[in-house]
Amino acid sequence: MKTVLCFVYVKMGHSIPPMLRSTYIFNVYRKAAQKYVPQPYPGRVIYFKSALNLSDSLLSWENLVNGGLQVYDISGDHSDIKKGPYVDAWAPILKKELDEAQRHLFRPNHHNRSRLLTHDQKPHRVVAFPTTEKNFGST
What we know:
Elements: H1 2-11, H2 18-35, E1 45-50, H3 57-64, E2 69-74, H4 84-106, E3 124-127, H5 133-136
Parallel strand pairs: 1-2, 2-3
Helix pairs in contact: 1-2
């Protein structure tokens, strides 16, 4: 019903009332997502994958990334990895990867691509840190 009301307001040239704006924006995003066609990315991608994420999204990434895909399996779920002890565990890995990317960016004659994957290779998986009480405290 809210979607129909949004449609009517738009067709009549009226502003969408505040109580319907979330519905309207959600529908705009949904339509955009349905039309979106991902394009291959030529660079390297670092993927922090939650150990509790059982989806096969990695397969989609493999088909889109041409410059190498580094996967870090990390403990916790999608929400947990943004919290203190989890951030403390993966942030140093991200910093190391960013530092390395900066070194390559500012040394254009240095082409150390030996650790990058080509499109037809499997991604390199690293279990970044196992879930232990020592690393994450009690839950």
